[in-house]
Amino acid sequence: MTITETQQEIISEFSMFEDWMDKYNYLIEMGKDMPKIDERYKTNNHLISGCQSRVWLHSELKEGKISFTADSDAVITKGIVNLLIRVFSGHTPEEILEANADFIDQIGLKDHLSPTRSNGLVSMLKQMKLYAQVYKLKQDN
Question: Which of 3, 34, 37, 51 is catalytic?
Answer without folding.
Answer: 51
